[in-house]
Amino acid sequence: MVARFIHGLDQILDEEAILYAPEQIQLDIVEHAYKDIFSGLYIMPMDGGRYINHSYNPNIGVDPIGDFAIKDIEIGEELTMNYNEFEKYPDEDNILYQICKLYNFDITYRK
């Protein structure tokens, strides 16, 4: 297992909490949180999972229990997963998209 949701450590955020957070916290949320396609909730991982990058040829797979290696990963190799397997792409009804527009933050990296 590479990463998993841990109650009490990882955060479940609602839109109001995100909207009223200080600017620097909002930017951190945009950088690391995602809107879960299954629950519709905003999830802010606090473990190493927040540093897994997006790829259409990932080496980490998504599972309801946690995130697992789906092929051998060499020491020093970047950890990647396909964000589309678990994240609703930020569009205009997504608070992450709205914050990116507010601060001119590039959202295209999340595609």
Task: Provide a brief overview of the structure.
This protein has 111 residues and is of the alpha+beta class. 21% of the residues lie in helices and 16% in strands.
Structure description:
There is one protein chain. This protein has one domain: SET domain (Beta-clip-like, Beta Complex). The protein contains three helices and seven strands; from the N terminus they run βααββββββα. It has helices spanning about 15-20, 25-30, 95-100, and strands spanning about 10-15, 35, 40-45, 55, 60, 65-70, 80. Strand 2 and strand 3 (about 40-45) form a beta hairpin. Helix 2 crosses helix 3.
List keywords for this structure.
111 residues, alpha+beta, Beta-clip-like, two-stranded parallel sheet, globular
The sequence of SSEs as H and E is: EHHEEEEEEH
Helix content: 10-25%
Given the C-alpha coordinates, what overall shape results?
A: globular
Flag low-confidence runs. none
Query: How are the strands of the biggest sheet laid out side by side?
Result: 1-3-2
Report the end-to-end length measured between terminal Cα atoms. 25 Å
Strand content: 15-25%
Please, how many helices?
Answer: 3
**Strand count, sense and closure of the main sheet?**
3 strands, antiparallel
Residue-averaged pLDDT, rounded?
80
- Secondary-structure-derived class: alpha+beta
What's the number of extended β-strand segments? 7
As for the number of domains, it is 1
